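This is your field. Have a critical look at both lines of this record:
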Amino acid sequence: MCAFSDIDCKMDFKLHSDYQPTGDQPNAIAELSEGVNGGVPYQVLLGVTGSGKTFTMANVIARVGRPTLVLSHNKTLAAQLYSEFKSFFPENSVHYFVSYYDYYQPEAYIPSSDKYIEKDLMINDEIDRLRLATTTALLSGRRDIVVVSSVSCLYGMGNPDDFGENIIHIACGMNVGRDEFLRTLVGALYSRNEVQLERGTFRVKGDTVDVYLAYEEIMIRVIFWGNEIETIQVLDTVSQLPQENLQEFKIFPANIFVTSKARMAQAIAQIELDLGTEVGMFNKEGRLAEAKRLQERVTYDIEMIREMGYCSGIENYSRYFDGRSPGARPFCLLDYFPKDFLTIIDESHVTIPQIRAMYGGDQSRKANLINYGFRLQAAADNRPLRFEEFESLTHQTIYVSATPDDYELNKAEGVVTEQIIRPTGLLDPVIVVRPSKGQIDDLIEEIQKRIEQGERTLVSTLTKRMAEELAAYLAKLDINCAYMHSDVETMDRIKILDDLRAGAIDVLIGVNLLREGLDLPEVSLMAIIDADKEGFLRSHRSLTQMAGRAARNLNGLVIMYADKITDSMQRTIDETERRRTAQLKYNEEHGITPQAIIKARNLIIGKEVDEADIDTDNRQSRGKGKKYEYTRKQQLPDDILRQCEAEFSPNASLAADPVVKYMSRDDLQSAADRLRADMVAAAKRMDFIEAAQLRDQLLDIEARLAKQKQTAE
């Protein structure tokens, strides 16, 4: 078994799918594969919404046979991609690498208020295991690897050479004593636990050693006969009964920050040297408080490292343990890949700017910590990669987007692989331009048509206030509606989108949040208010992304309300018409009749909707705009809010319960503990949406606890 015994095995990618490439997928797959095999450094896949870009990526990976990094711009989308690639490559090594924090409050200092914010975090044990499984697979020698990752892969990790040096190879008949084996386990950061064997621990009973691997849901039993390994067995983690006998096995370290004792001694010596230098500088400048603070904090950390092998915030000393010079980039996941790996950047027009911004945001926070004596200057080297460092490590790259930016196009020298034919035969929506005068009356008429047909409408405004006011106005006209912008919490956005798909609301109004990532087949109308106001929100790419929201419906229509046709509008109209012409021609040549996309509702939060709860014929009798169940009170006018409160959801969050404000500190603490446990459980089963909702509730409760404590003092 490759998963257990033969770690060095190599396999080809085996793509499993119930359907074959259609439309222009075969051409896109062939072009991209030939480009990778031919050494082309940068390629662009311009794929329209619903064209099967993920399936194309999977086919390219299978053809070129390279270890592949698929980079996504957020954890939720990465989870979706991971699930899809897992289904495409069930026999291969597909991994998920994202931040392992369920909750993370970074360390910070605010000089203006002299406020120090201590680091607070909660690590998800399951994601930590998945991260270790990723590094283990990359160093195992396998080539059939796909890693789906968020930008977490650009943050600092342990030296891959140190990780590799701490791999423990065992084989039946090997001449090694039990005690020597135990020392190597401790050196690989496994800990002894005789009470309860859990991930990353081992126990000893006479000549038998049981090891619960940190990166796999399996246990290994090693039985000694004197100074010789007699038997190696795989145990079931529940029954702990032997399942299989092995001849050899490799045990990988229990932590990605493993290091040697010699490297640790050198690191401590250098930390002490730098501490003396920086404390002396503070004293010379007359900043005695900063000098004393730095001396005390770093001295305590050094003592903890000597005694325990780690300390809180040990990542701030990573430069010393890695043996890096000041200013040198940290090691990251990209260093674990073989040199010829392939990078695929999904939604590149969003992901690339995010990568660019990571370094600056991190350094602005670290600067205050260093300048005011909370951290050594070496803390600045515990950072994400700069963009140019990321570029230097990725080599061959495929950018995937419906609207690639100038950066990607320039990298590919203007050569683009198009994928504009949808397997379902659906066409890009028709775009019409109507005058802005009387636009609201015209919009209401169009909305009513969609309501009668059981379809949904999206409306894009330029400002948050206009979105709120338009929502209030439509509600007064008995139209089920809601707004969505950056002030609406993440979980509320998910709830709103689910209710839109289910039919609880008919119209969703927003600003730029309606552009990317909304998979809403029920939406047949995309209305764009003030389409002629040139700028970021009405650029060619923004307009194209918005038009794509209506591309999953047979009756897709985009209405641009404007008094003139701008260059961005014209480019969007021309591009959409070009795509429609190509799609129509393909459908006619192949006798394809466009088919509506049928997708289970409420998959956004992983729950199916009971169709009995969706009474399409009687939606008007449900008090449109009045009975929408807000999980948070949207900032509508008071009269609208009062109407909503009459039907406020009985399942609202604990933090929103009015009883909470009368709870004692002990009750609040119990509620916080319960929410924290539920959050960890949700994250462990990879339900990040529910985990985020519970995290928001937990923060509300903790804020109340802090306020009560402050009042008592």
Summary: Residues 1-8, 601-652 have pLDDT under 50 and may be disordered.
